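Backbone-to-sequence.
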């Protein structure tokens, strides 16, 4: 049976990963001049950030101990679902990068 600490730990990791991915994708889409640049940076840097946050926060969940029996399912819950949610937030609910006014860049 899954303990309450394990569920809270998973929810914490999911929320942190979703926020990190959503902010990163938005930043890449607004600042990079090409569409593929944002895709490549998102595909490379977001999994690296997920790796760091999962390592730092997984003590609450117990990836190495008895907290999770199936690591594949755990990684889907803490990596795939937050990334999918962040991409859907960016694509469907945020205004397009062309509609956002950025401050003038100096230098």
């Amino acid at each position: 049976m899954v303990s309450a600490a394990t569920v809270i730990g998973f929810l914490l990791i999911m929320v942190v990963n979703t926020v990190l991915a959503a902010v990163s994708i938005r930043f890449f889409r607004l600042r990079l001049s090409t569409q593929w640049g944002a895709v490549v940076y998102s595909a490379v840097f977001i999994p690296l950030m997920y790796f760091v946050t999962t390592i730092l926060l997984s003590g609450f969940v117990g990836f190495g101990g008895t907290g999770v029996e199936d690591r594949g399912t755990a990684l889907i819950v803490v990596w795939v679902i937050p990334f999918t949610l962040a991409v859907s937030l960016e694509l469907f609910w945020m205004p397009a990068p062309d509609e956002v006014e950025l401050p003038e860049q100096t230098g």
